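User: Last request for today: this protein with adenosine monophosphate, please.
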Amino acid sequence: MNTGAEPLVDFHTHSHFSDGVLAPAPLVERARQRGVGTLALTDHDTTAGLAEARAACEASGIRFVPGVELSATWRNQTIHLVGLQIDERHPGLEAHLARVLARRRARLGEIGERLEKRSRLPGRELAAAASGSTAPTRLHLARVLVERGFARDQQEAFDRWLNRDTPGHVPAEWPTFEEAMQVLRDSGAVAVMAHPHRYRASAGQLRELTATFARLGGAALEASMAGMSPNDADRIASLCRRFELYASMGSDFHDPAVPWNPLGRWLKLAAGLEPVTKLLTTAP
Ligand code: AMP
Ligand code: MN
Ligand code: MN
Ligand code: MN
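Assistant: Here's the final one, the structure of the complex with adenosine monophosphate:
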């Protein structure tokens, strides 16, 4: 519970319309209880939860920021881009998301086939059990693998069955980084690079990625996340300063059962950084 004077913000959360556990309304209620004053819902590649989240925020007096987290490929690596203040009815965005969701459904089936062929797992059945969400992800499959006793926890499910060099690995084939950035630009979104500290990239590669992001109209880097080491925070803060990017902050909340990652972050930032809040024009 936030008992301080300053309200918390959260610009990165997931509902059960992608791989979050909660429906949007209970997610908003949980955010309210924690003292979150400004909330974005940013499901993977879908805007299907925004209407419910908006209505719940209006009823709770929370400032709502419609968002989405796009999957994209940059040099064979998956990069996530959060779009804030998106126009969810923009035809270009809708077409883009429809294409990615079709790809997500096909990919889940392909992972099931591979598990069936390359291991003794009932892959097709597991994929079917994981396919209920609007935006099915590998996390849905990881949860089913744990439920059925094929992995002790989600991390093991990824390490044993889903990641590169495992029986169920299927290369992602997301839209390119440039395409995803263009969709965000066209739909008027504030583009945020999600969790830049988590990519497997050298300092030079991350600089190049950030330079490309800034050149394509990117506005902010996620600079305050749970699980960021002080060293990570320093690295990302320097990138923000170097490329004159704003700082975003969010939990990447998926599941209330993960105690170390609650909803809500402080606006407090390292010296010289400006919060992405300054770019938002939605009514406070
Ligand atoms: P997908 O977009 O279908 O590849 O699924 C990726 C989602 O799975 C991410 O957004 C995370 O929520 C989750 N995820 C990815 N890797 C891991 C991991 N090693 N352990 C737990 N969750 C993961
Ligand atoms: Mn996720
Ligand atoms: Mn992500
Ligand atoms: Mn996320």
